[in-house]
Amino acid sequence: MSRVMSSKSHSRVAAKVQAHAPVFAALGDATRLSLVAKLSGGRRRSISQLTEGSRLTRQAITKHLRVLESAKIVHSVRAGRESLYEFNPQPVVEIKKYLDLVSEQWDQALARLKSFVES
Amino acid sequence: MENRIEKRIELKAPMARVWRALTDYREFGEWFRVKLEGPFVPGQVSRGHITYPGYEHIKWEVEVQKMEPERLFSFTWHPYAVDPKIDYAKEMPTLVEFRLEKTASGTLLLLTESGFDKIPSERRLEALRMNEGGWTEQMKNVESYVEQKP
Fold first, then answer.
1. CA of B22, closest CA in chain A: separation in Å?
2. Global pTM?
Protein backbone atom coordinates (compact mmCIF):
# COMPACT_ATOMS: atom_id res chain seq x y z
CA MET A 1 0.00 0.00 0.00
CA SER A 2 1.34 3.36 -0.83
CA ARG A 3 -0.73 6.26 0.18
CA VAL A 4 -3.32 3.80 1.27
CA MET A 5 -3.81 3.35 4.92
CA SER A 6 -3.93 0.05 6.62
CA SER A 7 -6.44 1.15 9.21
CA LYS A 8 -10.13 1.81 8.94
CA SER A 9 -9.54 5.39 9.89
CA HIS A 10 -8.17 6.36 6.49
CA SER A 11 -11.03 8.61 5.44
CA ARG A 12 -11.00 10.35 8.77
CA VAL A 13 -7.31 11.13 8.45
CA ALA A 14 -7.70 12.16 4.82
CA ALA A 15 -10.41 14.60 5.76
CA LYS A 16 -7.94 16.24 8.07
CA VAL A 17 -5.18 16.49 5.51
CA GLN A 18 -6.16 20.01 4.63
CA ALA A 19 -5.68 21.13 8.19
CA HIS A 20 -2.13 19.82 8.44
CA ALA A 21 -0.21 22.18 6.19
CA PRO A 22 -0.96 25.34 8.19
CA VAL A 23 0.12 23.57 11.38
CA PHE A 24 3.42 22.47 9.82
CA ALA A 25 3.88 25.96 8.41
CA ALA A 26 3.08 27.67 11.71
CA LEU A 27 5.64 25.48 13.47
CA GLY A 28 8.26 26.05 10.79
CA ASP A 29 9.63 29.17 12.42
CA ALA A 30 12.14 29.47 15.26
CA THR A 31 10.33 32.31 17.07
CA ARG A 32 7.01 30.55 17.01
CA LEU A 33 8.60 27.31 18.17
CA SER A 34 10.13 29.08 21.12
CA LEU A 35 6.73 30.56 21.96
CA VAL A 36 5.21 27.08 21.79
CA ALA A 37 8.03 25.76 23.97
CA LYS A 38 7.30 28.45 26.59
CA LEU A 39 3.60 27.69 26.55
CA SER A 40 3.97 23.92 26.45
CA GLY A 41 4.76 23.97 30.15
CA GLY A 42 1.00 24.27 30.53
CA ARG A 43 0.82 27.73 32.13
CA ARG A 44 -1.05 30.56 30.47
CA ARG A 45 1.09 33.55 29.68
CA SER A 46 0.45 37.13 28.67
CA ILE A 47 2.03 38.83 25.67
CA SER A 48 4.30 40.78 28.05
CA GLN A 49 5.51 37.58 29.67
CA LEU A 50 6.11 36.03 26.27
CA THR A 51 8.01 39.10 25.05
CA GLU A 52 10.34 39.07 28.09
CA GLY A 53 13.83 37.89 27.24
CA SER A 54 13.12 38.12 23.52
CA ARG A 55 14.85 40.50 21.15
CA LEU A 56 11.56 40.98 19.35
CA THR A 57 9.02 43.70 19.99
CA ARG A 58 5.68 43.09 21.61
CA GLN A 59 4.10 43.77 18.24
CA ALA A 60 6.19 41.13 16.50
CA ILE A 61 5.42 38.58 19.21
CA THR A 62 1.71 39.37 18.88
CA LYS A 63 1.91 38.70 15.15
CA HIS A 64 3.54 35.34 15.70
CA LEU A 65 0.93 34.45 18.30
CA ARG A 66 -1.80 35.21 15.77
CA VAL A 67 -0.23 32.78 13.32
CA LEU A 68 -0.16 30.09 16.02
CA GLU A 69 -3.72 30.96 16.98
CA SER A 70 -5.00 30.64 13.41
CA ALA A 71 -3.45 27.16 13.25
CA LYS A 72 -5.18 26.46 16.61
CA ILE A 73 -1.87 25.64 18.26
CA VAL A 74 -2.58 28.28 20.92
CA HIS A 75 -5.77 29.77 22.31
CA SER A 76 -6.16 33.16 23.85
CA VAL A 77 -8.39 33.93 26.79
CA ARG A 78 -9.25 37.37 28.10
CA ALA A 79 -8.16 38.13 31.63
CA GLY A 80 -9.15 41.68 32.48
CA ARG A 81 -7.31 43.97 30.04
CA GLU A 82 -4.89 41.30 28.94
CA SER A 83 -5.03 38.33 26.64
CA LEU A 84 -3.51 35.18 28.07
CA TYR A 85 -2.27 32.52 25.72
CA GLU A 86 -2.37 28.80 26.31
CA PHE A 87 -1.05 25.81 24.39
CA ASN A 88 -3.47 23.44 22.64
CA PRO A 89 -1.60 20.20 21.92
CA GLN A 90 -4.24 18.71 19.61
CA PRO A 91 -2.97 19.99 16.21
CA VAL A 92 0.59 18.97 17.08
CA VAL A 93 -0.61 15.52 18.11
CA GLU A 94 -2.52 15.24 14.82
CA ILE A 95 0.42 16.08 12.57
CA LYS A 96 2.63 13.72 14.53
CA LYS A 97 0.10 10.91 13.96
CA TYR A 98 -0.18 11.85 10.30
CA LEU A 99 3.59 11.81 9.75
CA ASP A 100 3.84 8.49 11.60
CA LEU A 101 1.28 7.01 9.20
CA VAL A 102 2.98 8.33 6.07
CA SER A 103 6.27 7.06 7.48
CA GLU A 104 4.80 3.61 8.12
CA GLN A 105 3.50 3.45 4.54
CA TRP A 106 7.02 4.10 3.27
CA ASP A 107 8.45 1.39 5.52
CA GLN A 108 6.03 -1.09 4.00
CA ALA A 109 6.64 0.05 0.41
CA LEU A 110 10.44 -0.06 0.85
CA ALA A 111 10.26 -3.53 2.38
CA ARG A 112 8.39 -4.69 -0.73
CA LEU A 113 10.99 -3.00 -2.95
CA LYS A 114 13.75 -4.79 -1.04
CA SER A 115 12.29 -8.24 -1.57
CA PHE A 116 11.52 -7.30 -5.19
CA VAL A 117 15.11 -6.37 -6.12
CA GLU A 118 16.82 -8.97 -3.97
CA SER A 119 14.87 -11.96 -5.23
CA MET B 1 9.51 14.95 15.12
CA GLU B 2 10.52 16.45 11.80
CA ASN B 3 8.45 17.96 9.03
CA ARG B 4 10.04 15.64 6.54
CA ILE B 5 10.35 11.90 6.28
CA GLU B 6 13.73 10.28 5.73
CA LYS B 7 14.41 6.61 5.19
CA ARG B 8 17.55 4.72 4.30
CA ILE B 9 17.63 1.12 3.28
CA GLU B 10 20.47 -1.19 2.19
CA LEU B 11 19.62 -3.26 -0.85
CA LYS B 12 21.65 -6.27 -1.86
CA ALA B 13 21.28 -5.52 -5.55
CA PRO B 14 23.34 -3.53 -8.05
CA MET B 15 22.45 0.12 -8.65
CA ALA B 16 21.27 -0.66 -12.16
CA ARG B 17 18.78 -3.19 -10.78
CA VAL B 18 17.43 -0.76 -8.17
CA TRP B 19 17.21 2.02 -10.75
CA ARG B 20 15.12 -0.18 -13.01
CA ALA B 21 12.80 -1.18 -10.16
CA LEU B 22 12.27 2.49 -9.38
CA THR B 23 11.88 3.97 -12.83
CA ASP B 24 10.44 1.27 -15.08
CA TYR B 25 6.74 1.94 -14.64
CA ARG B 26 5.79 -1.74 -14.72
CA GLU B 27 8.43 -2.71 -12.17
CA PHE B 28 7.56 0.27 -9.99
CA GLY B 29 3.93 -0.81 -10.13
CA GLU B 30 4.84 -4.33 -8.98
CA TRP B 31 6.26 -3.40 -5.62
CA PHE B 32 4.41 -0.14 -5.13
CA ARG B 33 1.09 -1.81 -5.94
CA VAL B 34 -0.10 0.59 -8.58
CA LYS B 35 -1.12 0.04 -12.21
CA LEU B 36 0.40 2.85 -14.26
CA GLU B 37 -0.76 3.92 -17.72
CA GLY B 38 2.69 4.53 -19.19
CA PRO B 39 6.40 5.24 -18.62
CA PHE B 40 7.73 7.93 -16.29
CA VAL B 41 8.83 11.07 -18.13
CA PRO B 42 10.33 14.10 -16.31
CA GLY B 43 7.91 17.03 -16.29
CA GLN B 44 4.95 14.83 -17.12
CA VAL B 45 2.08 13.56 -15.05
CA SER B 46 2.00 9.83 -14.39
CA ARG B 47 -1.44 8.34 -13.86
CA GLY B 48 -2.75 5.03 -12.70
CA HIS B 49 -4.68 3.38 -9.93
CA ILE B 50 -3.81 1.49 -6.79
CA THR B 51 -3.88 -2.28 -7.11
CA TYR B 52 -3.86 -3.07 -3.41
CA PRO B 53 -6.97 -5.16 -2.67
CA GLY B 54 -9.78 -2.97 -1.39
CA TYR B 55 -8.21 0.26 -2.66
CA GLU B 56 -8.57 -0.21 -6.40
CA HIS B 57 -10.86 2.83 -6.65
CA ILE B 58 -8.00 5.11 -5.64
CA LYS B 59 -6.32 7.02 -8.43
CA TRP B 60 -2.61 7.52 -8.48
CA GLU B 61 -1.32 10.74 -9.93
CA VAL B 62 2.17 12.15 -9.58
CA GLU B 63 4.28 14.63 -11.51
CA VAL B 64 7.70 13.25 -12.36
CA GLN B 65 10.45 15.77 -11.55
CA LYS B 66 13.93 14.36 -12.03
CA MET B 67 15.38 11.19 -13.51
CA GLU B 68 19.17 11.21 -13.25
CA PRO B 69 20.19 7.64 -14.10
CA GLU B 70 21.26 5.60 -11.07
CA ARG B 71 21.40 8.74 -8.93
CA LEU B 72 18.09 10.46 -8.41
CA PHE B 73 14.43 9.82 -9.16
CA SER B 74 11.89 12.32 -7.83
CA PHE B 75 8.22 13.18 -8.14
CA THR B 76 5.65 15.37 -6.48
CA TRP B 77 2.32 14.06 -5.24
CA HIS B 78 -0.32 14.52 -2.62
CA PRO B 79 0.39 12.15 0.24
CA TYR B 80 -2.60 10.29 1.56
CA ALA B 81 -4.84 11.48 -1.24
CA VAL B 82 -7.24 8.68 -0.43
CA ASP B 83 -10.58 10.41 -0.15
CA PRO B 84 -12.32 10.87 -3.55
CA LYS B 85 -14.47 13.65 -2.04
CA ILE B 86 -11.52 15.91 -1.36
CA ASP B 87 -9.96 17.97 -4.11
CA TYR B 88 -6.28 17.50 -3.36
CA ALA B 89 -5.28 19.59 -6.36
CA LYS B 90 -5.84 22.63 -4.14
CA GLU B 91 -3.20 21.45 -1.72
CA MET B 92 0.50 21.91 -2.28
CA PRO B 93 2.14 18.63 -3.18
CA THR B 94 5.00 17.06 -1.29
CA LEU B 95 8.27 16.11 -2.97
CA VAL B 96 9.41 12.49 -2.94
CA GLU B 97 13.08 11.81 -3.73
CA PHE B 98 14.85 8.50 -4.17
CA ARG B 99 18.65 8.78 -4.09
CA LEU B 100 20.98 5.91 -4.84
CA GLU B 101 24.49 5.35 -3.54
CA LYS B 102 26.83 2.50 -4.31
CA THR B 103 27.93 0.34 -1.38
CA ALA B 104 30.20 -2.68 -1.03
CA SER B 105 27.25 -5.05 -0.92
CA GLY B 106 24.95 -3.29 -3.38
CA THR B 107 22.96 -0.08 -3.14
CA LEU B 108 22.02 2.34 -0.43
CA LEU B 109 18.62 3.87 -1.10
CA LEU B 110 17.77 7.17 0.55
CA LEU B 111 14.17 8.28 0.49
CA THR B 112 12.94 11.69 1.54
CA GLU B 113 9.47 13.17 1.46
CA SER B 114 9.36 16.88 2.18
CA GLY B 115 7.14 19.92 1.86
CA PHE B 116 4.50 19.10 4.45
CA ASP B 117 4.64 22.71 5.59
CA LYS B 118 3.68 24.09 2.19
CA ILE B 119 0.29 25.68 1.98
CA PRO B 120 -1.64 26.97 -1.03
CA SER B 121 -1.00 30.61 -1.82
CA GLU B 122 -4.46 31.77 -0.83
CA ARG B 123 -3.86 30.35 2.60
CA ARG B 124 -0.25 31.39 2.91
CA LEU B 125 0.15 33.16 6.18
CA GLU B 126 3.46 34.77 5.44
CA ALA B 127 6.82 33.89 4.00
CA LEU B 128 8.17 31.17 6.22
CA ARG B 129 11.71 30.16 6.80
CA MET B 130 12.84 26.98 8.42
CA ASN B 131 15.40 27.00 11.14
CA GLU B 132 16.70 23.46 11.11
CA GLY B 133 18.43 23.42 14.49
CA GLY B 134 15.69 25.37 16.20
CA TRP B 135 13.01 23.13 14.81
CA THR B 136 14.66 19.91 15.94
CA GLU B 137 15.47 21.23 19.37
CA GLN B 138 12.11 22.80 20.05
CA MET B 139 10.09 19.94 18.71
CA LYS B 140 11.62 17.78 21.41
CA ASN B 141 9.99 20.08 23.94
CA VAL B 142 6.66 19.88 22.22
CA GLU B 143 6.95 16.14 21.85
CA SER B 144 7.79 15.53 25.47
CA TYR B 145 4.82 17.68 26.41
CA VAL B 146 2.57 15.73 24.11
CA GLU B 147 3.81 12.40 25.41
CA GLN B 148 3.24 13.40 29.01
CA LYS B 149 -0.24 14.61 28.23
CA PRO B 150 -1.64 12.47 25.46
1. 9
2. 0.72
